Amino acid sequence: MKFETIFPLETSFSEEYLKANYWQCLYTKSNDYLHYWIVLPNNVKPFSIDKIKNKDLNLTEIGFYSRIDESPYIEITVGYETILYDINCSDWLKKKLYLMGEVLLQERKIQGKTTGFYLDVLTSKNEGEKNIISRYTTMKDYNPSGGANYFLVKVSCYSESYKELAETMYHISSNWDLINKSNWQMAEMLKPFDYNFNEPIEFYYPASWDAKYSINNNNNLSQFLFEHTIDGDNKGVIISFFYENEKFKIVDEVYNNSIQRLKNREEYSLEISAIKELSINNINTKIKELFTLSGSISSLTFNAFIQIYIIRTLKGWYYFESIGSNPNLKNYNWEISKRALQLIVKSFNNLEFEDYDKNNKFLKNKNFYKTYKGKNYTKEEWENMEQKLYENYVQKNNLGNGNTDCKKEIKKKGEGFFLDEKDMK
Q1: Helical axes 89-100 vs 333-347, angle rounded to 10°
Q2: What is the distance between the alpha carbons of residues 136 and 97, in angstroms, rounded to a whole number?
Q3: Can you give the pTM of this predicted structure?
Q4: In whole angstroms, how far apart are CA 28 and each of 32, 50, 169?
Q5: 238 burial level (CB within 10 Å; 0-12, 13-18, 19+)
Q6: What's the gap between Cα 78 and its chain centre?
Q7: Residue 102 and residue 93: Cα distance in Å, rounded?
Q8: What number of H helices and E strands is found in the chain?
Q9: Tell me, what DSSP letter sits at residue 287?
Q10: How many other CB atoms are found less than 10 A from the CB of residue 131?
């Protein structure tokens, strides 16, 4: 049996089946910000809801559930870790999987609008003579005491039962949430960067980073430095160069000009990948082109990871270079720098983190409610537009003097009352 071929993203369960065979478990034992609900099969009950700290994983388990009858064995674990700085849930979970010795079979990366990447994965692990198949999902939420809580749900069964339980495991792993979720699912506040270059430049970076600028900045070349310093120790830097668009014709020239300062240092050794162009879809459609490359920089005294993004707009080239820790099991410095750089790129002249293309049409993977005159609308945008049209109609026809039948009449006639229906799709 090939487990990697079985990774359901939906179930065939009917509403009647779910009502008859599942229940919603509420965890409310600990702090309010840890309270969660999770949907479980009727034959799965709590085994332990005490806090159990796993020092090897830096994880606190707050829920363990297992089946109570002779049906195929299934167990569910809920755990969390508090981290002071913002990282991707996907990177956090990958580190935990490595520490647990899990073999990755399938993965689905999910991008939050502002909160980074999450992970839904299927894994395999041998425990004694048994092979265990597990499905993990992740979540994070702001911690009132500082930082964020990073959560995982793990649903496991024996490999011989996985085909039978695959949909059940998916349903459990995709139906849980925090009861008291905050309105800010990040570990830090964000600082706005605002600078008038050849064009206005705006983006966000995490509040734990400090920005510095060169006193020689001008509209042809500007340089900025972002530092992540903890207790007086520098844990990562992001160096940026802003160039006017006419200075370089191709991205290779931007890279070579920017990296030359490091190549000129004989004590440094650089190993960098080739330049790769990225699709701006799902990253930032407010820019024209996006490129990246990564590698290492080393000397006799240090070895560091280097990640570079190069942004092109109609008026400029923008080079961002992150230098910091290599991936390791001792700290999250690599993950912190990666997330800070991704935030800058994602929000670059896109402070609303919009996912539209340059014609203001939604990308293909975005759901929209209606289309009118070639423009796509979400349900909320459509209702707002209708409300404005309604208010204009009332004002224009002097119907705001207590005529309560006006709105009913408009509702009855539908969208065509305001809009040309032949333009609607």
Answers
A1: 150
A2: 9
A3: 0.82
A4: 7, 11, 23
A5: buried
A6: 20
A7: 11
A8: 7, 23
A9: S
A10: 15
DSSP character string of 167-235: HHHHHHHTSEEETT--S--SSS-EEEEEEESSSEEEEEEETTEEEEE-TT--SSEEEEEEEEEETTEEE
CB 240 within 8 A of CB 234: no
CB 147 within 8 A of CB 83: yes
**Closest to 347 in 3D by CA, of 188, 196, 184, 203:** 203
| Residues 214-263: tens digit of each pLDDT | 998 888 899 999 999 998 899 999 999 999 999 999 999 999 999 999 98
pLDDT tens, residue by residue, 82-125:
999 999 999 999 999 999 999 999 999 999 999 999 999 999 99
CA distance 132 to 79: 18
> Mutual orientation of helices 405-413 and 379-396 as an angle, nearest 10°?
130
Among residues 343, 280, 269, 279, which one has the least CA distance to residue 306?
A: 269
Structure tokens at 314: 């109609």
Helix (H) or strand (E) holding 393: helix 379-396
Q: Of 244, 236, 265, give the one whose Cα is nearest residue 327.
A: 236
* Contact partners, residue 7, CB within 8 Å, separation at least 6: 105, 106, 108, 122, 166
b/e map 152-177, b = 16+ CB within 10 Å: bbbbbbeeebbeebbebbbbbbbbbe
Dihedral sign, CA of 346, 348, 351, 354? negative
Nearest to 147 by CA among 185, 184, 187, 116: 187
The torsion region of residue 159 among left (phi > 0), alpha (psi -120 to 50) and beta comes to alpha
The type of residue at 224 is: F
Looking at the DSSP assignment, which residues form a beta bridge with residue 135? 122, 155
- On whether the CB atoms of residues 16 and 40 are closer than 8 A, the answer is no
Tell me the Cα Rg of the chain. Answer: 26
With residue 248 as reference, give the H or E element that holds it. Answer: none
What is the DSSP track for 116-148? -EEEEEEEEEEETTEEEEEEEEEEEEE-TTSSE
The amino acid at residue 176 is: W
